[in-house]
Write a structure and sequence with these properties.
heterodimer, A: about 325 residues, mainly alpha, Farnesyl Diphosphate Synthase, B: about 220 residues, 9 helices, globular, Polyprenyl_synt_CS (chain A), metal-binding (chain A)
């Protein structure tokens, strides 16, 4: 299934979002413009704007506010990515050099801070304080998730609860905010807002689990970064947590690597990454993702009959089954 | 004197107790600078009602965020990073994001959207200036010092402007002196590394600030 074909109904609005993001980033003084455009050109699925636009279809006909909200969400996502790359010391994202790699860490940090402020500013013109309340809560949770992630780094004794709480804060809440804010900005009813938020949340959880699976199973070319980057960077994600529970050899290898990630034989951990990618832990992780996907589809069923439900269902399934 | 100092220490402690993340060690905060920020912002507007207190806290969060993100740039410049040190720099990046999220959460949660809009403009400008200083080769020495001052004074100016305080210039000079000329902050060190003439001009301005201060007494 091609995502573009499924999204044909919102293509004009998505083009508008893309065009406006370009306008916003290119309007800045040269270096901010260079770094922001560099981020933008790296592409991405733009799933946050997609969910804002699709959720808004349940409310009043297309409004300017919805486009602004969609742009703000994507800008906030971009700002968080550029900071993530500094934290992970990443050199490549989506096959392109990261801002911190091409320029330096300061440029990446200050560009991220600038984009964040610009994104929040975009919502200022909209006469709806709830948008800020939802978004500021989400961004705050996002930062809590990031701190937890760093604290948990190179820590072997992590349970599933910690993992799920982390991905909720790190990913799911921003996608939940996308559907919620899309619904708020198009004046959906309170019940519709709640159900669309739930849908976004469950999709967000499934999406991050799939992302974590693909980090073990996709190729470097498909990922646009080295296979197993999460584990190499000390992040224990669902497939690794499940593998550790099932397999002493994985436990021992990861434990040794986490104890001394600089000196340990890198070939051994790469072999472990390869082994996890072919283990039953992957099937178990897919089962978790499917469970969240089912919950998302159930939330969708509670929404009023609307042609866009079919599109949301297709996207949910696409994101839950994607290969990269 | 001690009681003033104790009071300021207490302000720092109260801010940290109220807002510090559980996972973050207290020594990550530059207590000296935090104390100075709390002191100077309070000097600008000593009496605050409840709504203004929220704006005060929000602005302190943003100041902490802007300052700690500078440390990400400058700490990474040092060579021979140990594994532990890299983790420490990474945590600084996150603490900055955490405090800027508090800025947004406090202002939006209390409906202070006009304050939010007002201060966002300054936050954008400060980050533009930082990027400009890192990348513009042909800035004059005077431009460089003006821009470094702007980084440190930007939020103070915005705060005074928000409350339309007219009698702020003397305090403004004290703040600039404190953060830019009483010692060499990161940005001055960095600019001197790039252009040796910055040091001469910096010393000249430092003397001028000190002379003005003496003449005023």
């Amino acid at each position: 299934m091609k995502l573009a074909a499924t999204l044909s109904s919102i293509k004009p609005e998505m083009d508008q979002v893309e065009r406006k993001i370009k306008e916003i980033t290119s309007a800045e003084p040269s270096m901010i413009s260079h770094t922001s455009s560099h981020l933008l050109e790296a592409g991405g699925k733009r799933i946050r704007p997609v969910f804002v636009l699709l959720a808004s279809k349940f409310g009043a006909p297309m409004q300017k506010d919805v486009i602004e909200v969609a742009i703000a969400l994507e800008l906030i996502h971009m700002a968080s990515l550029v900071h993530d790359d500094v934290i992970d010391r990443a050199t490549i994202r989506r096959g392109k050099p990261t801002v911190n790699n091409r320029w330096d860490n300061g440029t990446a940090m200050f560009t991220g801070d600038f984009i964040f402020a610009r994104a929040v500013e975009l919502l200022q013109n909209l006469d709806e304080p709830r948008l800020h309340q939802v978004l500021s809560h989400t961004i705050h949770q996002l930062t809590l998730g990031e701190i937890e992630q760093l604290k948990d780094r190179y820590m072997i004794g992590q349970n599933l609860f910690r993992y799920f709480r982390r991905i909720k804060r790190k990913t799911a809440l921003l996608i939940a905010s996308s559907t919620e804010l899309g619904a708020i900005s198009s004046q959906c009813s309170d019940e519709e807002i709640i159900q669309l938020k739930r849908f976004g949340y469950y999709i967000g959880m499934a999406y991050q689990i799939i992302d974590d699976i693909l980090d073990f199973t996709a190729s470097e070319k498909e990922l646009g970064k080295p296979v197993g980057s999460d584990l190499l960077n000390g992040h224990l994600t669902l497939p690794a947590i499940l593998a550790i529970q099932n397999d002493d050899a994985s436990l021992s290898s990861i434990e040794s690597y986490f104890k001394d990630p600089t000196a340990y034989n890198r070939e051994q951990i790469i072999q472990t990454i390869h082994d996890i990618g072919r283990s039953s832990a992957i099937d178990e992780a897919y089962a978790w993702s499917d469970a969240y996907l089912d919950r998302a589809l159930n939330a969708l069923e509670t929404l009023p009959s609307h042609p866009i439900k079919k599109t949301l269902r297709k996207i949910a399934i696409y994101l839950g089954k994607r290969k990269y | 004197m001690n009681s003033v100092n104790d009071y300021q220490d207490q302000l720092v402690q109260t801010f940290i107790d109220k807002y510090k993340h559980t996972y973050v060690d207290i020594d990550r905060y530059d207590a000296v600078h935090l104390k100075q920020h709390l002191h100077f912002f309070q000097e600008i507007k000593p009496v605050l009602n409840d709504r203004e207190r929220i704006i005060f806290d929000a602005i302190i969060h943003m100041q902490v965020s802007l300052q700690i993100h500078d440390r990400v740039e400058f700490d990474f410049l040092q060579s021979n990073h140990t594994h532990h040190m890299v983790g420490s720099i990474q945590m600084n990046a996150l603490i900055g994001d955490y405090h800027s999220s508090w800025f947004y959460k406090l202002l939006s949660g209390s409906g202070e959207l006009s304050a939010l809009e007002h201060f966002l403009e300054t936050v954008k400008q400060i980050n533009r200036t930082k990027v400009e200083l890192l990348h513009t080769e042909d800035l004059s020495v005077i431009d460089i010092l003006d821009k470094v001052e702007e980084i440190y004074i930007g939020l103070y100016d915005a705060y005074a402007l928000y409350y339309q305080l007219t009698d702020y210039n003397h305090l403004r000079n004290q703040i600039i002196y404190h953060f830019v000329y009483s010692h060499k902050p990161f940005w001055i060190e960095k600019m001197i590394q790039r252009n040796g003439q910055v040091k001469d001009k910096w010393l000249e301005r430092k003397s001028q600030f000190e002379e003005d201060s003496i003449n005023r007494q």
